[in-house]
Write a structure and sequence with these properties.
With 778 residues, the protein is an alpha/beta fold. 45% of the residues lie in helices and 14% in strands. It is globular. The structure holds adenosine-5'-triphosphate and magnesium ion. Adenosine-5'-triphosphate binds next to helix 3.
Length: 778
């Protein structure tokens, strides 16, 4: 460690341990910080950025710091503003996607777009894929969803249609390639990109036009990446372009144990092989955890250490052992939710833990509904962290479609969405004639509208309606050209389209709520304008305060400098991700495990700890004995979940659960079997026996109606019935019937040998009502 050179430096290093300080002080060249959860990786990134600016006098605009979510970027910026003041404004702190979007917009002409391109989300992508399938004339042998997934995967791997490797006998691959080609053509025609394009087009541009790449390489002398374990190949390619091996100043921090986005193409090898890609990279390991009490860390360690392919690391903590972990067993998901709500209230009252320091996690979004209901009933304030929910509402999507048409009328998907919203009497036939005409003439729908007189077989009334709609779009587009701020444009759009007016006139409760949401969108635009104005003032002041001049000829302008306000606002909306909702003051946070990455809470409830819920049923289907890569990823997700907790960790499970409209009796999560009993405060052989599924043995799904399949762990069911007083409940029990074979009891009517029992039998038999005495157990 070097000696601090001045007061700035000592302030920045004050509360760092030696390896952290080492990483902050590291001079030039690549650096990898690889370490477990809660060891201060994110703190190292922020401090290092502050150190670069304050002590090493690097211009803030030369620094590109990339994080995983907008929320994380926002938090990092806040921390940096606290350390650097107004200078923080000139830093580029963003997600990969938003950094790429900003650069791509500046260079749009090079990739066949104009600067006003729009960004399509999943929903838009889906309708585009369907259209591409029609245009490509492929038989509907594949689901659009599957094709879209494959296209996304290709993009994550940095492959355009021509780069796809399709074997001769790979029919499905050939179909994907064909649709992908048309899909890309449709995107370009609409002056639109999807998420994958943002990165892919930029990587291609940088590869094909070295002069363009050179400008950004010269500019960004320092690139830093948080959560590096979750980068996918196209993101890594971009990093290597901007900060090429072997000697660029690329700092990556991450934890291979927290790699949880394989399904989005993330490749954990990126972090494991970093020292090979960047030979000579300095490697720093942080081993002290500052977040969690020892019991929590031990549990997390025991779960993750079952994974075979990982960098071994063991965290230690100076923090106390802390409280025991708590295992909560419940009859069903409703009982679970009620108990979670009750415990939250108790913690707040007796444990002095604020609502905002508590979180409830679950594996899949579908689990949130019951939890929400219970929290509402118990009057526990909460926020659902599911960032897109607001922007995914139908009325908000309609409004956004109009806004996007304002800047880019060529966006066909948007035009189709609002062609008859609010209702203006344009029916399916008219729509079909319009689209057919546009297709034949090779025009965008907007252009086709202008030529509507030439559309065959269109009656005068339909002509007139299309004319009115066209007029509306022309007027809005004109307005957007000169709009001074985003809010003005949103306001104008709402007025001209009469979206709010129509909803208010309808007057139903639902319509009024929708109208409120549109006003909320206007509010979001106003907030955006304010923020933009204050940022630009701050950044001008910071520039003035600096003694040094930016060097001649280097591009130092803010990346969004010339972007018109409405467009910048739309970009922000498009890039809102799943994990982006604010964790609000005074509220418990509800979120999926994936969204919990990087966060910390005093108390964490991890719900649905049952096999096939968590680990997800997908991972249980794996053929490999230990569940293969999918199971390893679920295990990492469990590690992420556990390590979010500072002081209290509750793991909870239900004996039976309705999920996705099905009633399932799942055995306890195999991850629970890895947690030493003592951490729950159980002594050996204590009852209730902690659930111990045959965790390591290969097995089938528990509900498979198959004689060779495993059975619900009876000892566990017994234990939990003792706890929950559900004795006498035979639901879930396995039974045999001479004629129908084996099955599982779903419900009963009456008691004794003549009770009527509804049983779900295997094979084609399905649900049957039979008399109890004709059944034998097993
Ligand atoms: N040297 C330190 N002294 C005291 N507290 C620290 C120190 N380093 C980090 N912390 C605190 O420990 C907690 C975890 O830090 P941080 O979020 O940076 O860890 P991380 O390694 O990024 O975790 P994750 O792997 O979950 O992303 C934070 O509350 C942070 O403020
Ligand atoms: Mg972190």
């Amino acid at each position: 460690m070097e000696t601090p050179v001045n007061a700035h430096e000592s302030a920045l290093l004050e509360d760092l341990n030696p390896p952290q300080a080492d990483a902050v002080l590291h001079g030039d060249g690549p650096l990898l910080v690889l370490s477990g959860a809660g060891s201060g990786k994110t703190r190292v990134i922020t401090r290092r950025v502050a150190h670069l600016v304050k002590v090493r006098r690097v211009f803030p605009w030369r620094i590109l710091a990339v994080t995983f979510t907008n929320k994380a970027a926002r938090e990092m910026r806040e921390r940096l503003t606290a350390l650097l003041g107004a200078q923080a404004n000139d830093l580029v702190v963003s997600t990969f996607h938003s950094a790429a979007a900003m650069i791509l917009r500046r260079e749009a002409e090079h990739v066949g777009l104009t600067r006003s391109f729009v960004i399509y989300d999943d929903g838009d992508q889906m309708s585009l894929v369907k259209r591409a399938m029609r245009d490509a004339g492929v038989d509907p042998v594949m689901q659009p969803r599957e094709i879209l997934h494959r296209i996304d995967q290709e993009k994550n791997a940095a492959r355009l249609p021509d780069d796809m490797r399709v074997e001769n006998d790979d029919l499905r691959g050939a179909i994907v390639q064909r649709v992908y080609r048309v899909y890309q053509r449709l995107l370009r025609a609409a002056n639109a990109v999807d998420f994958g394009d943002l990165l892919l087009l930029l990587v291609k541009l940088f590869r094909d036009q070295p002069a363009v790449l050179d400008r950004y390489r010269t500019r960004f002398t320092h690139v830093l990446v948080d959560e590096f374990q979750d980068t996918n190949p196209v993101q890594y390619a971009l990093l290597r372009q901007l900060a090429p091996p072997p000697s660029a100043n690329l700092v990556v921090v991450g934890d291979d144990d927290q790699s949880i986005y394989r399904w989005r193409g993330a490749d954990v090898d990126n972090i494991l092989n970093f020292p090979l890609q960047y030979p000579g990279a300095k490697v720093v390991k942080l081993e002290q955890n500052y977040r969690s009490d020892q019991n929590i860390l031990t549990a997390a360690h025991e779960v993750i250490s079952k994974n075979t392919r990982r960098m071994a690391k063991k965290l230690w903590s100076e923090r106390p052992k802390g409280e025991n972990l708590e295992l909560m067993l419940h009859r069903d998901e409703r009982a679970e939710a009620q108990e979670v709500a009750r415990r939250i209230l108790a913690l707040q009252r007796e444990g002095f833990i604020k609502f905002s320091s508590m979180a409830v996690f679950y594996r899949t979004n579908a689990q949130s509904r019951v939890l929400e209901e219970a929290l509402r009933l118990a009057r526990v304030p909460y926020t659902l962290v599911s960032g897109r929910s607001f922007y995914d509402r139908a009325e908000v999507r309609d409004a956004s479609a109009y806004l996007r048409l304002m800047v880019n009328p060529r966006s066909d998907a948007d035009l189709l969405r609002v062609l008859n919203v609010p209702a203006r009497g344009i029916g399916d036939t008219t729509e079909e004639r319009l689209t057919d005409f546009a297709n034949e003439q090779g025009l965008s729908l907007y252009e086709a509208l202008a030529e509507r007189q030439r559309i065959p077989a269109l009656n005068a009334a339909a002509q007139k309606r299309l004319g009115g709609f066209h007029q509306l779009l022309v007027s809005l587009h004109g307005f957007a050209q000169t709009a001074k701020d985003a809010a003005g444009a949103v306001d104008q759009m709402l007025k001209e389209t009469k979206l709010v007016e129509t909803l208010v006139a309808d007057g139903s409760d639902e319509s009024l709520t929708r109208a409120e949401n549109l006003k909320e969108l206007l509010g979001a635009a106003q907030e955006f304008d304010l923020k933009r104005a204050s940022d630009s003032v701050a950044s001008a002041m910071a520039a003035e305060a600096r003694e040094e001049e930016a060097p001649e000829g280097v591009d130092s302008a803010p990346l969004t400098a010339d972007v018109p306000p409405l467009q910048a606002f739309l970009e922000q909306i498009s890039l809102v991700g799943e994990a982006d909702a604010e964790v609000r003051e005074g509220r418990v946070a509800l979120m999926t495990l994936h969204a919990a990455k990087g966060l910390e809470f005093d108390a964490v409830f991890l719900t649905g700890m049952e096999d096939s819920v968590f680990p997800h049923s997908r991972a249980l289907k794996s053929e490999e004995p230990d569940g293969g890569e999918e199971m390893a990823e679920e295990r990492r997700l469990c590690y992420v979940g556990f390590t979010r907790a500072r002081k209290r960790l509750f793991v909870s499970l239900a004996q039976c659960r309705s999920l996705f409209g099905e009633l399932k009796y799942n055995p306890p999560s195999r991850f629970l079997a890895d947690v030493p009993q003592a951490l729950f405060g159980f002594k050996e052989n204590d009852l209730p026996a902690p659930p111990r599924p045959a965790a390591m043995a290969p097995r089938r799904r528990a509900w498979d109606d198959d004689e060779t399949g495993p059975r619900v762990d009876r000892s566990y069911s017994q234990a939990s019935s003792d706890m929950e007083a559900v004795s006498g409940d035979v639901r879930g029990m396995r039974v045999r019937h001479e004629q129908f074979g084996s099955g599982r009891i779903v419900s009963t009517d009456g008691s004794g040998p003549n009770a009527k029992v509804t049983v779900e039998f295997g094979g084609d038999v399905g649900l049957k009502r039979v008399i109890a005495r004709f059944l034998i157990p097993g």
